[in-house]
């Protein structure tokens, strides 16, 4: 190729590289398709982050806060899976325990459009396309199955398939992936009974208003062992498309990439896996239903 033809080609390639380098996208993908952040540790420090309250990392979650996600209904004690994850994220961003504050955010309010009175929220919130239209999510920090909990002496204790649950009256919380999972995977003959919060769902099972309830599997394990005497987790099944949980942030939050940076570093050095093993180790002790 002649010099006269080579020079324009080189200029075009340089221009393409420059445009790519100036892209507004703050993340990149490796060959496996995994999203990786492009921010650095220096970018993600308290003095460089615009938080809801200066110098403080404000984290939201619902109340009551159940085990194994939180222990003793107290997110501030650092005990429980999501409490530990939140404090670990804060630590990676340079916030010590005294600089991380918790605020109560009802589940449905967390992903409603509009401004947020928190920096991020952890509350077993599933990453869904509909929610992603109005809020940001971090990379997933956990993938959950759904658990089916029945009361003591239930006729459903020996179910072996989702089809066996189709004639049961199911109880679920409004706005959750569990409700979608019941409708899409079980397809019950009777409309599931929908309740405003997790306490009402549990009360419905205890009082016999429903034959079974569907919640995230770790919560089902906890309810069986602590809250609902004589109950059984008769099985687990996957939500449609999987049920990945992410930290929720305001749409286009300046913090999203730094929360991802924190979670990536926790994944790489094994911290996230260690937290998961410590607090979620009992979450697989139920037969799979299909």
Describe, in plain words, how this protein is organized in 3D.
This protein has helices at 3-21, 81-92, 107-110, 129-132, 177-186, 198-206, 217-227, 256-268, 271-280; strands at 27-29, 35-37, 57-61, 100-104, 120-121, 135-137, 142-143, 146-150, 170-173, 193-195, 212-216, 232-237, 244-245, 248-250. The protein is built from 9 helices and 14 strands. Helix content is 32%, strand content 18%. Helix 2 (81-92) crosses helix 8 and helix 2 packs antiparallel against helix 9. Strand 3 (57-61), helix 2 (81-92) and strand 4 form a beta-alpha-beta unit. It folds into 2 domains: 33-143 and 243-280, D-Maltodextrin-Binding Protein, domain 2 (3-Layer(aba) Sandwich); 146-237, Periplasmic binding protein-like II (D-Maltodextrin-Binding Protein, domain 2, 3-Layer(aba) Sandwich). The chain is elongated, with a radius of gyration of 22 Å.
Provide the structure class: alpha/beta
* Computed CA radius of gyration, to the nearest angstrom: 22 Å
Which fold does the CATH topology of the largest domain refer to? D-Maltodextrin-Binding Protein, domain 2
Taking pLDDT < 50 over at least 5 consecutive residues as the criterion, the unreliable ranges are 1-34
Classify the helix fraction into a percent range: 25-40%
**What is the CATH top level name of the largest domain?**
Alpha Beta
Distance between the termini: 62 Å
Strand content: 15-25%
Q: Which sequence of SSEs, written as H and E, runs from N to C?
A: HEEEHEHEHEEEEHEHEHEEEHH
Name given to the CATH architecture of the largest domain: 3-Layer(aba) Sandwich
**How many β-strand stretches?**
14
The 3D shape can be described as elongated
As for the number of domains, it is: 2
Major sheet: arrangement of strands: 10-9-11-8-12
| Overall pLDDT | 88
The total count of helices amounts to 9
* CATH homologous superfamily title of the largest domain: Periplasmic binding protein-like II
